[in-house]
Amino acid sequence: MKRFVVITPVPQIIDSIVTNSILRQAVEKGLAEFHTINLRDFGEGNYRQIDDEPFGGGPGMVLMAEPLFAAVDAALKWLDGKGQIRYVFPSPQGQVWTYATTRREMTGENFIFLCGHYKGIDERVLDALRPVEYSLGDFVVSGGELPTMIMIDSMVRLIPGVLNDLDSALTDSHVTELLDAPWYTRPRTVKGQEVPEVLLSGHHQKIEEWHRKQREQRTRERRPDLWKKYQQQKNSNE
């Protein structure tokens, strides 16, 4: 079983996504476990302060180190020393999260995600914990909750037994260098548009070939960078 702890000042976001997504199915099947820690429970003073102005001046606020360290201690207590722990910090300064990253990270069992806010978190937390930093791309969002849940979802959906059909996930875009092919379902005609005849033929070899050509065409047109990698890999295997 994989266990995920998310430290955040807005636990409602995490709990809502777990409850209303495929993650709930993973929990109900006993394949994953989630624990949300409210950072404000460890805040200072009557107002549960968790952020302060940065030393040296400048705009914005920084999440304080002591509440974060206390929250991490609570996370470690919940995990109860069962297996190695992977710290993850979603950050626009991190390496880009990819399908390959997902496959590599999902070999772990216990994860603690630190959700940053404002200008980020006190650097001493990062120095002490040495989390791996991941980014969803070259942009910034208002908090680490959504990137955290995207990363977790991408891992959990690949755990055997979570999805009703794992083969479906293994044909998605980015599983290989190719993007996914177009897909159709009933009815056969929608607003004058017909389903390609080959998909109705029942000829599995022709259908498979059609899907391959569609994947190649889409990748060539939409992601020349992936198409180049695909061509290089294809040539090296010949």
Record the strand order, biggest sheet: 2-1-6-5-7
How much strand? 15-25%
Q: Mind describing the biggest β-sheet? A: 5 strands, parallel
| Count of separate DSSP helical elements | 9
* Uncertain runs: none
**What would the average pLDDT be, to the nearest integer?**
93
CATH top level of the largest domain is Alpha Beta
Helix-strand makeup class: alpha/beta
Q: What would you report as the Rg, rounded to the nearest angstrom?
A: 22 Å
Number of strands: 9
Summarize the structure in words.
This protein is of the alpha/beta class and 238 residues long. The protein has two domains: 2-156, 3-Layer(aba) Sandwich (Alpha/beta knot); 171-237, tRNA(m1g37)methyltransferase, domain 2 (Trp Operon Repressor, Chain A). 39% of the residues lie in helices and 18% in strands. The chain is built from nine helices and nine strands. It has helices at 11-19, 22-28, 65-79, 99-105, 123-129, 145-156, 166-169, 204-222, 224-237; strands at residues 2-8, 32-38, 51-52, 62-63, 85-96, 110-114, 132-135, 189-190, 193-194. The strands form three sheets. A five-stranded parallel beta sheet has the order 2-1-6-5-7, sandwiched between helices. Strands 3-4 form a two-stranded antiparallel sheet. Helix 4 (99-105) links the parallel strand 5 (85-96) and strand 6 (110-114). Helix 8 packs across helix 9. The longest helix is centred in the last third of the chain and has 19 residues, at 204-222.
